[in-house]
Design brief:
By secondary structure, the chain is α/β, with parallel strands linked by helices. The protein folds into three domains: about 230 residues, 3-Layer(aba) Sandwich (Rossmann fold); about 90 residues, Rossmann fold; about 80 residues, ACT domain (Alpha-Beta Plaits, 2-Layer Sandwich). The protein is about 40% helix and about 20% strand. It is built from 16 helices and 15 strands. The strands form three sheets. Strands 1-10-9-8-11-3-2 form a seven-stranded mixed sheet. It has a four-stranded parallel sheet with strand order 6-5-4-7, with helices on both faces. Helix 5 runs parallel beside helix 6 and helix 9 runs parallel beside helix 11.
């Protein structure tokens, strides 16, 4: 589903709190701090879209996401008294690591509040980058409140993840790099949570190349921008829900909202299935580890490849994904791609029956992931047993062939 932004058809806009000069200044500030991340082509997506598709690999940025850019610019802009007071942030992952490393590079003390359920690798990484980590609350809203209370009590400067002009200017350097690396670009796809990255890219790109379409992508279960753009002001979602933690934001930021409304051409939403499939594609085809939020632009391309004018650049915004979550997402992505097959079959309850079934599956080149027996169901005859199988296959066509072959072999396939 897609939503055209309110003012996307009007070329002239009032001055925004972030300008091209601000982004260029941020780019100079970040020399030697952030990486100019790689631009990688995707043959598979290029064939699907019908024109070149490139990945802007911010998942390979220091700390594993674009967040270092904005955090460094924001903290570098503090006056001496503010630096002496230290900084504080609240985050479940990427912003936490960006603030921690930026603070260490600038010699500023940092305290980062993280939810108690934050993935252990992200907590450990934030500490390793030099921050004092305090675990508080079960959800980010509680963590955010604790960080703001700490700022008021100690005088530490609160570093917002997206709702500040310096943050947006820093993130906008991604847009400058895209134009330098792919000057022929016609469409840029970028994930949107609070809006800082999309706003920054739009400021830089639209100032230099107003013909380039900038399209934001949100997870359907956490899409606060579409209703906000429709009403003309930020509105909060009651309970955003998505696997894409990096863009799971319940309310657009006030500062980026105006920029997104004026300069971003369109905001699209993608399903959880599409996110899983996109992450799987990045891993298998591009050999890139990408978190669900970073895969949102790829999910949009997979969902409607014919709707984009190329060359296309998809911003892979981050690669910080917990290994346990990655495992679950990959399974979900394989299921969404038709590469898992669940079947229930009835067999004669006699020795060797299961072995014969597994041998048949081996011939069909289907990998058995899990198998279980049911013997006590009243629907079963005295000499019957039901077997539930979970198989890994090569795709939807293979699933159909496996089920048909088992039926042809005389097995009663229930599902």
């Amino acid at each position: 589903m897609n939503y055209r932004t309110a003012d996307s058809l009007h070329p002239s806009h009032p001055r925004h709190p972030v300008t091209l000069d601000d982004v260029r200044g941020a780019q100079k500030m970040l020399i030697g701090v952030s990486r100019v991340t790689a631009m990688e082509g995707s043959r598979h997506l290029s064939e699907l879209v019908g024109s070149p598709v490139h990945f802007k690999c911010e998942n390979l940025q220091r700390t594993g996401s674009f967040k270092l850019r904005g955090a460094y610019v924001r903290i570098a802009g503090l006056i001496a008294e503010e630096r002496a007071a230290g900084v504080v942030a609240a985050s479940a992952g990427n912003h936490a690591q960006g603030v921690a490393l930026a603070s260490s590079l600038l010699g500023v003390r940092s305290t980062v509040f993280m939810p108690k359920g934050a993935p252990l690798p992200k907590v450990a990484a934030t500490r390793d980058y030099g921050a004092e980590v305090r675990l508080h609350g079960q959800v980010v809203d509680e963590t955010l409140a604790a960080a703001q209370d700490y700022a008021r009590a100690t005088g530490a400067v609160f570093i917002h993840p997206f709702d500040h002009a310096d943050i947006i200017a820093g993130q906008g350097t991604v847009g400058l790099e895209i134009l330098e690396q792919c000057p022929e670009v016609r469409t840029i796809l970028v994930g949107i949570g609070g809006g800082g990255l999309a706003a920054g890219i739009a400021v830089a790109v639209k100032a230099l190349r107003p013909d380039v379409r900038v399209i934001g992508v949100q997870a359907a279960g956490a899409a606060a921008y579409p209703p906000s753009l429709a009403l003309g002001h930020p509105v909060a979602l009651e309970s955003p829900s998505t696997m894409a933690d990096g863009i799971k934001v319940g309310r657009p930021g006030d500062v980026p909202f105006k920029i997104v409304g004026d300069l971003v051409d369109e905001v699209r939403t993608v399903s959880e299935d599409a996110l899983s499939s996109a992450l799987l594609l990045c891993l298998e085809r591009a050999k890139l580890v990408v978190e669900p939020a970073g895969a949102a632009p790829v999910a949009a391309l997979l969902s409607a490849p014919e709707q984009f004018t190329g060359p296309v650049v998809a911003v892979l915004s981050g690669g910080n994904v917990d290994p346990l979550l990655m495992q679950r997402i990959l399974r979900h992505g394989m299921a969404a791609a038709g590469r898992y097959l669940s079947l229930r079959l009835r067999l004669a309850d006699r020795p060797g029956a299961l072995a014969s079934l597994l041998a048949a599956l081996s011939v069909l080149d289907a990998n058995v992931v899990d198998v279980s027996h049911v013997r006590t169901d009243p629907r079963l005859g005295l000499t019957e047993v039901e077997v539930e199988l979970h198989l890994e296959t090569k795709g939807p066509q293979h699933c159909t062939e496996v089920a048909a072959s088992l039926r042809d072999a005389g097995y009663t396939v229930m599902a």
